[in-house]
Design goal:
about 70 residues, alpha+beta, 3-stranded antiparallel sheet, 2 helices, elongated, DUF2082_NA-bd_Znr, Nucleic acid-binding protein
């Protein structure tokens, strides 16, 4: 991968990615009662598996992939 090339996976340069979402617990009472209050979108490279989490992204799946690829 050319260091000046800002498109593709930041790790391997591959251009195929998938998106998913996860929920996690916060701290305090939500952790004690296992209440999942934090939501993240996950963008993962289909080639190497490198993943990035994006907080508070709702209905912006394609925008998140654009951010991942630069």
């Amino acid at each position: 991968m050319n260091p000046d090339d800002s498109s593709g996976c930041p790790k391997c340069g591959h251009t195929d990615a998938s998106t998913d979402s996860i929920s996690t617990t916060g701290g305090g009472l939500s952790k004690m009662f296992d209440i999942q209050t934090k939501k993240f979108s996950v963008v993962s490279c289909e080639n190497c598996g490198y993943s990035e989490l994006y907080k508070n992204v709702r209905d912006r799946g394609s925008d998140v992939v654009d951010v991942f690829f630069g």
